[in-house]
Specification:
Shape of chain B: globular
Strand order of the largest sheet of chain A: 1-2
Order of helices and strands of chain A: HEEHHHEEHHEEHHHHEEEEEH
Distance between the termini of chain B: 24 Å
Largest interface: A-B, 38 and 36 residues
Number of strands of chain A: 11
Helix content of chain A: 55-70%
Radius of gyration of chain A: 24 Å
Strand content of chain A: 5-15%
Number of helices of chain A: 11
Largest sheet of chain B: 2 strands, antiparallel
Structural class of chain A: mainly alpha
Oligomer: heterodimer
Shape of chain A: globular
Strand content of chain B: 5-15%
Number of helices of chain B: 5
Largest sheet of chain A: 2 strands, antiparallel
Structural class of chain B: mainly alpha
Number of strands of chain B: 3
Amino acid sequence: MTDQNIGLFAINAFVLALCGGLYVVLPYLTRKSLLFGVKVPPEAYYDPAAQELRKSYVRTCLLGTLVLLLICAAQFMLWREWTMAAAMYLPLLVIPLYFIAFVPNWKRAAHLKAERGWQVPSVVFAETSSSHTRGKLSNVPWGWYIAGLVLVLATFAVAVIQYPHLPDMIAAHMDGSMQPTRMVPKTWGSVLMMPLMNAGLLVVLMLPVGIMIERAKLQIDPSAPRKSFAQHRAYRRRMGNAMGFLTLSMVLLLALVGLPILFPVSPALGGVIFWIGMGVFSISMVVLIAVILKTGQGGCKVKVDVDESAAEDEAPAAKSKTYGRGDDKYWIIGTFYYNPDDPAYIVEDRFGTNIGFNYAKRLVQLGTVLLALGLVATYVWITMQLL
Amino acid sequence: MIIEINTQSPTPIYTQLRDQIVLGIAGGRLLPGEDLPSVRRLAADLGINFHTVNKSYAMLSDEGYIQMDRRRGAVVAGGIARREAFEADLLEELTLSAAEAICHGISEMEFAALCGRAYQGAKNGGVSND
């Protein structure tokens, strides 16, 4: 039990440090035309006051992460038996930390925009070929998902074939060397549990994320629309493949971890199987983080070579540009998009590289409520198991 | 091609969209037989009401610039037939433009030269200001 606690403490501390680290880099991954969720001219990025906002945000994030890590360490030293509970609940505190660091700077950014009189062009863009292919989902890197599906179906087939040969009690929980720590009676439910979870992960969680990357409404820099579209293409290609690789590695990990339920293995072989799965999964995580850091929001860090002068000719409306305050009013505390007049469901976030939703849509509201209920139910269930 | 809509312009959005697609076809940025995005997708990407896009597509379809295919959606039309009615409309529009030009002291030669530049500009994908 002590070993497990040390492992949980290490994972807990790692998750907190990782979230803190990601928070710190968010303002530097965001496109230059967004300052804490407020739309500004790209040159405003270099305004000393804007730089000071970013620094203040980073200071709050670092301090907050440090406090969380200290709480985590104190809990482990003083109340070691609560490590499991801490591993469940402490990472939740990174959510308020985000708002504590972000919201005051969002307010300051809005003030700064008014004070400086910053305005942005009142134009919106679309690229016909991009809209067409993204509508058809023809550029989603399907190979990763098809490979994942084949793997999941294979695990189903193996489970069904192996079912008659299994003993009456099968493993329901295993340690790091794939040795059972808890046994349950053999039923179709318990045997097919892992393949079902794997299928759920692939179809309900990861595939929609892959589709969202392709479908999200693009944010286009009015001063360089061609460059923006080219960067977006690079972003979708890189992020799509990185998420596809992550999906396949997660499916592989679950498939490998589920294998010893059907074929009991020696501790040595079990350890190897477990670490192969974890190794591939870790590599895919590193690849994803590297892609996020190098690509930036919607590909804003990607260097592309496009002739912007030709774009001027393409857009007669550009010659009579009007300027305004932009669409800030639709972004509640600079974070949640709420625009009933926008038919888009999926939009690029205003801060960082994530993708968000248009919360004015009924379907999105329903999904958010279901997700929240699901999360609360999961937490209540696990907490009851702990008590 | 890139479509740019000015959300604050006095020109209605459906007209802007229609005009840009016509300019795209004339300038060769949209080719005959090319698929256009679906109404919903284009509306979502532009962040405008899909009825607006629908209206533009309906206008373009009525005027013969695009065809609405049940399976493929909106497609840029192949050869657009020359119609007498169109010439009459064009003459009417040019007459108004000519009248405005006369009021601004532009000579017939200058007006013809401007028309030539506009024609070349539309054909080559942009009007130069030289």
